[in-house]
Structures are given as C-alpha cells and as structure tokens.
Amino acid sequence: MLVDYHMHSDFSEDCFTPMEKTIEAAIRKGLTEICFTEHMDYDYPDPDFTFELDVAAYREKIKIMQEKYAKQITIKKGIEIGLQPHVLEKNKQLIEQEAFDFIIASIHVSDKKDLHSGDFFVGRTPSEAYRFYYEELLYCVERFDHYNVLGHLDLVKRYKTLDTDENFHDIIEAIFKEIIPKGKGIEVNASGYAYNLGTAMPSHDILSLYKECGGEIITIGSDAHKSEHVAHRFPEIIQQLKQIGFRYLATFSEQKPTLHDINKFI
Ligand SMILES: [Zn+2]
Ligand SMILES: [Zn+2]
After folding, report:
1. 96: burial class by Cβ within 10 Å (0-12, 13-18, 19+)?
2. How far, in Å, from the CA of 7 to the mean position of ligand 2?
3. CB of 109 closer than 8 Å to CB of 44
4. Predicted TM-score of the model (pTM)
5. Which ligand is nearest to the CA of 225?
6. 74: buried, middle or exposed (CB in 10 Å: 19+, 13-18, 0-12)?
C-alpha cells in the first residue's frame, strides 16, 4: 500500500502539470491511492495570482479521471484551502456547498501578507514572524472546523531561518489541544525536502509533540506540483513516523478518516 494525499495539477494557479501526467507517474511508482488537493486561497494578496479553483470544472475532471483509471488507482477529490481569519466564513460556505473527500487547511498568507514573496517578514524579526504565524493558525483553528488536516504546519520555516533557539511548542501544543479532540489531524508534507529544508514539514520535534498530545490522524503528501515529486522520500518519512510511535496512516472518503496500519505501507 502506498498513498499520496497532497498533490496539485493545472487546476491550481501555481501548477502546470496535467492531471493525467501525475496520475500516470503515481501508477508507475506503484501507488494504490492518490488525492488531488487543489488550491483555493481566498483573498490572496498577490494580484498576479488568484489561487481560486474552478470548482465545477474540477468536479467534472476528477469524475472523468476516476472512471478512466478505475482499474489502476483510486483517485480522491480533495482541496487545499488557505486559512486567513477574514476568509473563514467564505471557506465554510464553499465546503458546505461542494463535496470533497479530503480537505487540507494551510496557511500561505499571514497578517494578509504573502509568505512566499517575503512581504510577511518585512518589519519583523524571524522570531516575531514565527510567533505571529503560529498564533494566527491557533486563532483560525479555534474558529474553523471545516477541514480534516492542517497542511505543512511549520511552513514559515521554509521562508526564513530562525536566529534563536525557540521552538514555539507552547503555541503549537495549544493548536494540537484544540484540533485533536475535534477529530482533526495533520499531514506530513514531503516538499520540505524538495525545498532544501532537510526534513519534511512539520519537523521531527513537532511530530513528536503531536504524538505526545495524543494525535493519531496523520496523512502523508508530496505536495507535488511536478509529476516526478509524487511520493518523494516517502519510505524514510514512514520510517520516521514509525520511530516516533505512530501506528496508523489515514486516508479519507467524504471527509471520514480510515486509519491503516502503518506497517502496511512501503
Ligand atoms: Zn500549501
Ligand atoms: Zn499544496
């Protein structure tokens, strides 16, 4: 068994790979199940990017792909929604209107400023930026329940190196204590390796903290925007999760998790 629960196609603003190409790469790599998680990032601050998904076209395309590849691989319909305090209500309306198998909630924009462009870091020390980012995530999870896992929880690390030894476990623990009782999980996102973080996201200490807080729901995703990144570095990530003590990996149908014995995954 091998699954990839975070991947993009040309339905996402920042991806130019047709779905078929990624599906065929997944089949070649022996994956049994994949979930597309296209971007829907309301009120993205960069005017050059809209990050708004054509929901009807996506629904139709997924249906065609599910039928075309039915004998070879299971394909799920997911979405990656961007969390920002002022778009929570809009996200909720979308999720209530459209059926998805799986929803990742991610922060790409904090304080209404883009992390990717670096605008968010202007006028803040790295420490201030990290704290603001995690506190905004806590604010959102206290007020929003329309998702299944939090995406790349420590993404802020990708864009700015910290110059102190803070780990922000106080806020991250508060986030876990908020989400775990509600049946929400986190993902392990392999793209940290592709972006030279030297680790998946979140990092080992945060995964251990999640385990200590009683977290069990965990998905694994490549965040592939190119077909060659499908299931990138998964064997070592699965090994790492086993070492921490995680016993299951989750897949989702209609937003309901199924927990699979982690030893079944290669
Ligand atoms: Zn993301
Ligand atoms: Zn993504």
Report:
1. exposed
2. 6
3. yes
4. 0.98
5. 2
6. middle
3-state secondary structure of 217: coil
* Ligand 1 center from residue 151 Cα (angstroms): 6
Fold classified for 3-264: TIM Barrel (3.20.20)
Query: Strand ranges (DSSP E) for 41-146?
Result: 74-82, 102-106, 109-110, 113-114
State how beta strands 218-221 and 248-253 pair: unpaired
User: Closest ligand to 221 CA?
Assistant: 2
The pair phi, psi for residue 3, each rounded to 5°, is: -130, 155
User: What CA–CA distance (Å, rounded) separates 230 from 209?
Assistant: 27
User: How many angstroms does the Cα of residue 37 sit away from the middle of ligand 1?
Assistant: 9
Question: Under 8 Å CB-to-CB from 61, ≥6 apart: which residues?
Answer: 11, 19
CA 244 to ligand 2 center in whole angstroms: 25
Rounded to whole angstroms, what are the CA distances from 242 to 205, 224, 239? 14, 23, 5
CB 14 within 8 A of CB 225: yes
DSSP 111: T
pLDDT string in tens for the chain (266-residue length)? 999 999 999 999 999 999 999 999 999 999 999 999 999 999 999 888 889 999 999 999 999 999 999 999 999 999 999 999 999 999 999 999 999 999 999 999 999 999 999 999 999 999 999 999 999 999 999 999 999 999 999 999 999 999 999 999 999 999 999 999 999 999 999 999 988 899 999 999 999 999 999 999 999 999 999 999 999 999 999 999 999 999 999 999 999 999 999 999 97
Burial code of 102-136, b = ≥16 C-beta within 10 A, e = fewer? bbbbbbbbbeebbbeeebbbeebebeebbbbbbeb
Nearest Cα residue to 105 out of 135, 137, 136, 81: 81
